[in-house]
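Example record for the data management plan.
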Amino acid sequence: MTHIIDGKYFADTIKEEVQRETEHLKQQYGIVPGLAVILVGENPASQAYVRTKEKVATELGFYSFTNHQPATLQEHELLSLINMYNNDPRIHGILVQLPLPKHISEHRIIEAINPDKDVDGFHPITLGKLLIGEDTFKPCTPAGIQELLLRSGYDPAGKHVVIVGRSTIVGKPLAAMLVQKQAGANAIVTIVHTAAPDISYYTKQADILVAAMGKPESIHGSMIKDGAIVIDVGINRVEDPSAPKGYRIVGDVHFSSAAERAQAITPVPGGVGVMTVAMLMKNTLKAAYRYALSLKQA
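Corresponding structural encoding:
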């Protein structure tokens, strides 16, 4: 019987931990974790995601707000907003929701965020520290994957982890995290992508398979080793006239065929996606604690 890894359960557990630590931070230092989210444009998926972030942050007792700007916002105006939050002591985490309109450089925007407030974990300094194994903010989705594995009892140490996808948001940082000689990591990691003549050659070798390519139901059961752990990062909308909304949400893994062979698998929705928001809150709390300690040492 395949074990379904319940992301919602673990995300709720992490949020409860964050809420308790937030109260401790308030009582000990008089500091409330502050999160500023900047949303540019009217992308429906981004709007929904930002609403979720703000709702969860408020539930956890954070000082949180969203600055919603029109798609016509110019790059220099967005840079000014970031600079304002960089210098605001009430704000410990800054998140600029991606994607941005095409006339704005995502690289320049990410680099403008103070690394001490980079709770998304995308700044080059953050990623550099991640690569060499220093303590830093872990990008939220890879951090959520690592937490799911560990809290479900599937320690990656000594296991062959195959990651399908090489994005800077998931694939590459997850590989950097899991290859470290540290607790919760120490894995043998392979990244496979579209340059491979046969992706299944690699996926069949995986003790832990992470699908993060953004292509609906591309990994079928025949591509998975018996007894593998399957982590599905994909969130894809596919048309389905029989569904109430005319579409359904699926992952990058063909769930039913994969579940026949996998020892454990994450569902979509309810798997990795809900963990991402929980890890954002954990990063924001970490940033607030760092700020509190810096004041104490000053």
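Summary line stored alongside the record: The radius of gyration is 19 Å.
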